[in-house]
Write a structure and sequence with these properties.
Blueprint: H1 7-16, H2 20-23, H3 41-47, H4 50-66, H5 79-86, H6 95-114, E1 120-127, E2 135-139, E3 144-148, E4 153-159, E5 170-174, E6 178-183, E7 186-192
Parallel strand pairs: 4-5
Antiparallel strand pairs: 1-2, 1-7, 2-3, 3-4, 5-6, 6-7
Helix pairs in contact: 4-6
Length: 197
């Protein structure tokens, strides 16, 4: 016959032992890969691939060069948020391709943020309009920079990919009069109001 422990012993153990979750500290916030202290599966994938590691290092240099970033919004993803989201690439079969697309997007966004203005500028109106006061689109072959009328950059759209990575702001359609951008919450339909400004 099996004897059970007294009830008071179970209560004592419950008070004395912290919950299992309390024994495991949360992982530290990361904004770059540290190949000497890999934390996540994605870190291993990046560290074992020289091309991805080079892209990670290029992103870190670009982050340092850009300076303060815009506030996170429906059209702009803060670097720390992007870095966490790009970690999801490790969960899919095409992880390397997904990561390459994620790093390419971030490099384009950071380059556009610090680049000298170039490309055609058009005043646009969008539905939904993510901010008040009108918008401008600066269109280059690599990206479309969205800014408010004062020139403050509010987002950078890049071409959509088929790698499993979804840009924060993707170019769905870009024509002479129409611009459709895919955001995290849906489609943003824009119309160009006039030619280059």
């Amino acid at each position: 016959m099996m004897r059970s422990a007294p009830l008071w012993l179970g209560g004592l153990l419950a008070i004395a032992a912290p919950p299992a979750a309390a024994l495991i500290p949360p992982p530290p916030n990361q904004t770059s890969v540290d190949c000497n202290a890999k934390i996540y599966a994605v870190d291993t994938i990046v560290c074992e691939n020289p091309d991805l590691l080079g892209m990670d290092q290029a992103v870190q240099r670009a982050v340092a060069d850009v300076g303060p970033e815009p506030a996170e919004s429906a059209t702009y993803e803060a670097h720390e948020t992007w870095f966490r989201r790009r970690g999801l690439c490790a969960m899919i079969e095409t992880a390397r391709e997904c990561l390459a697309a994620a790093y390419s997007e971030r490099l384009a966004v950071l380059t556009a943020m610090r680049a000298a203005p170039e490309g055609k500028v058009a005043d646009i109106t969008c539905i939904p309009m993510p901010w008040e006061g009108g918008a401008r689109a600066r269109i280059t072959p690599e990206w479309i920079t969205l800014s408010d009328r004062s020139g403050l950059i509010r987002g950078v759209a890049v071409p959509m990919t088929t790698t499993g990575w979804r840009p924060m702001l993707g170019i769905a359609t870009s024509s002479a009069r129409k611009l459709e951008l895919r955001t995290a919450t849906g489609l943003m339909r824009c119309r160009r109001m006039r030619g280059p400004g």
